[in-house]
Protein 1
Amino acid sequence: MNMNRNNDRYKKYGSYYGYNSNMKKGNSYYNGNDMQKYENQSCIRDVDFENPNIFKKEAVFKRPGTVLHLDGDSEYAQKCKENYKKMGMTAYIYTIPESEQYKQVYSLLQKIRPNILVLTGHDAFMKKRNDIYNIDNYKNSRYFIKGVLEARRYEHNLDNLVIFAGACQSYYEAIISAGANFASAPKRVLIDMMDPLIVAETIAYTPVDEFVSISNIISNTREGISGVGGIQTRGAFRTGMPGL
């Protein structure tokens, strides 16, 4: 994947979709509209004691989706860790070779129990062989496919576990057919390191009762629809009350 940025939109993280990207892990939460901070005592401070069943709008807690990210490249994994932090997301990142990811993903899913899974690293299509529909013509696509199949053995519901899988020039059609929600690369192009994170961020901050905008995701990736595609998917962002 390519880490170069030629467009200013890649210089800001977490602001594409109208949700607060500065949300912090733990017991402190931010209101996405006015950025006012609420501590643990906020649920007491905001309650109308004459009617304790009514809470003010601010007395809520917010929980974006959690990410499990397996990356075949240690340098990219570290950069992804930094960017997930900037996005205010909870992400568990493991550097695992592409050929080994499918062997470990099931046990990691059992351990982490995430809402979102990212399987990525490096891939390549051997252009001299011409046939884009032959799995033998790809460096690592077969391993991403196996990883998705293992993940779907753990959770078959496409909304309970949202999967992005693939890297540069990956076998998009086969990865989607295996059960991924999003994958690369429809036109066998190079994708950017940030593209899987843009997908993960969108899912994490889209409310659970709404479908994500696939067009928004695609428009914010480096190569657009040539690099990333996907299917209709619900978000993983939840709110609750009273505030914690």
Note: Residues 8-47 have pLDDT under 50 and may be disordered.
Protein 2
Amino acid sequence: MKSPDEMLSLRLENSFQKDKYLQNDDDSWVLSLSDLMSLLLIFFLVWTTLKISELKKQEAVPAGGPLSQMSFSPNPEALEGLKDTLLEFSPSNTADGSIVIVLEEDISFDPGSARLSEEGKLVLERIAKKLKTGTHYRIRVLGHTDSQPVSSAGTWTSNFDLSIHRAASAASRLIACGIPPGRIMCQGFGDLYPARDKDKIKDKRFNRRVELVIEPS
């Protein structure tokens, strides 16, 4: 039979071996987690490199489809000569070489309406006929109103609502007259960008308008 001293020594040795085993087990777990994190980091780096390469290829080769027509590289020379064909519509030029044609309300729409007048339809038909002679352009159709609030009992919820519907009506007419839909974008600004003083009654009629901004592409 073992003495008390021997039994105590044996217990201490077993306890030491158990602690050593647990310590080795913990270290093994930490090592596995470290390996996993390293693999994830390598995967992320490889994925990022491939993604950057893919994006560079997409930038180098424009994708097809209607949306690509709205992201041409600017080419101011593309509109040379086109303005001369539009002189009857009193076009103006912007700093970037775009052509702007203003359709005032009194010849395009009835007050408070987004339906084109017969005169407005004819004007847009003539403009479309001229534009079909060019190819490297896109058109932004911008709707504007004056600052007079719309009637609460009317069709429109706000001046923004009215302005975008007027822009859409003009754009639809251009498309019906042969302008490719992919070249056209509509925007409504309400009374945000008045052409003249929005507080003067005599100037309000100039603020109610649709602008055709013909941009080089």
Note: Residues 4-60 form the longest helix (57 residues).
